[in-house]
Amino acid sequence: PRRRSRRGARRAGEGAAARGGATLRTCLGWVRLALVVGELSGRVRRRHGIDVDDPVLARFWEQRLLCSLTTLRPDGSPHVVPVGATLDPPARLARVITSGDSLKARNVQRATEVGGDPRVAICQLDGRYWCTIEGRALVLTGADEVAEAERRYAQRYRTPRLNPSRVVLAVHIDRILGTLPN
Fold first, then answer.
1. How does the average pLDDT of the chain come out, rounded?
2. Alpha-carbon distance 156 to 62, whole Å?
3. What pTM was estimated for this model as a whole?
């Protein structure tokens, strides 16, 4: 009998089960190898859900890294901007300072006023390590609240420039996801 090439066998549908099984066995072999290599390298696998009291989280958020803040526009589409953010684990808060007339502040204010969705996400990235804080935001305008947020910002980044219309986006943390260094 005439022997078919692989391409011909694929067209005819012959041997698909055998090839699929072999492919699956090969993939599982690679997965096992990756797990062994990971164990030998000393890398500890962590779940993506992170506790707010995790000291590794606090160390990651002490580094001088920029973040992205995602708020929702009135039509539900995301508005993503770079920001400086600070983490306050005991209060379960993340803070972002911004101008009161910025779109991010207006998006949060509008959502809280009309019973909309004030959910936001703050993401910090450093190479292969990342952390996303999800929560509900409020716009705080009190002088003491703004001063505390500015103090925390200055401690992590630098002294913020003078801005009389500054407000604080206070994010009450619902969930923290990420892959953090050991």
1. 83
2. 6
3. 0.73
